[in-house]
Amino acid sequence: MIINQEFVKEYFKYDDGLLLLRKKYSRRCGVSLDTKVGSLSAAGYLRVSIDYRKYSIHRLIFLYHHGFLPEKIDHIDQNKTNNKIENLREASQSENLTNRGLNKTNTTGYKGVSFVHKTNKYIAHICKDNIKEHLGTFNTAKEAAEAYDKRAEEIHGKFVYNNATISDI
User: Fold this and answer.
1) What domains can be seen in the chain, in order of their start residue?
2) Residue 63, Cβ neighbours under 10 Å: how many?
3) Least packed by Cβ within 10 Å: which of 48, 66, 124, 161?
4) Cα–Cα distance measured from residue 167 to residue 165, given in angstroms and rounded to the nearest whole number
5) How many angstroms separate the Cα of 84 from the Cα of each of 42, 57, 76, 80, 111?
6) What is the C-alpha to C-alpha distance for residues 117 and 163, in angstroms, rounded to an integer?
7) Residue 31 pLDDT
8) How far is CA 94 from CA 42, 89, 126, 150, in A?
C-alpha cells in the first residue's frame, strides 16, 4: 500500500491536530468511523498501524496538508502529541535537534553550559550541523548561558530554543 496525500485524505480526516478515520483501509482496522486514530509510542509520539507498518500521526498530518514528507518534522512547542498543523514545520535533522530543551543529564540548569570541576568555571558550547563551537569560559553559569543564548539566536534563527525560552516555561 502506498501512503501518499491522496491515501491520507481518502481514509482520514483532519480535525484540530487529530486524524479521524473516514473510511476503513483494511478488514483488520478495529477503529470505528469518525473516531480518532493513534496510540502513544514508547518515544511519546502518536502512531497508527496501517497494514502492519507504523506511521507517526504528525507525519501523516503534514502529508495531508502539504502533499510531501520532509526529512524531519519539528513540533514547534516541543509537545510530541500536539499535532495541530500550525505546530508542525519542516526541519533538517540539525534544526530538529536545535529545538529541544535541557538534556536529562544537565546539571547546570542551562542549555549549552557545562561545569568544569578542574577549573571551577563554566563553559558554553553550541552545535550546528554536528560541529561543536566553544563559546568561552565563564565565572558563573548565568554568564555562560547568556553567551549561549546570543550565539543560538545568530545561528539557529526560528528554530532557536535557548535558556530564555526555557526560563519562560
Assistant:
1) 5-91 (3.90.75.20), 102-168 (3.30.730.10)
2) 21
3) 66
4) 6
5) 21, 10, 10, 11, 27
6) 22
7) 65
8) 23, 14, 12, 18
Grid coordinates belonging to 30: 478495529
Which alpha helices (H) appear in 37-140, and where do they start and end?
A: 57-66, 93-98
- Low-confidence residues of the chain: pLDDT under 70: 1, 25-31, 167-169
Extract the C-alpha cell encoding 159.
Answer: 528554530
Pairing of strands 12-15, 18-21: antiparallel
The pTM of this model reads 0.81
User: Which residue is listed with cell 500536539?
Assistant: 82
Give the residue from 44, 47, 41 showing the smallest Cα distance to 61.
47
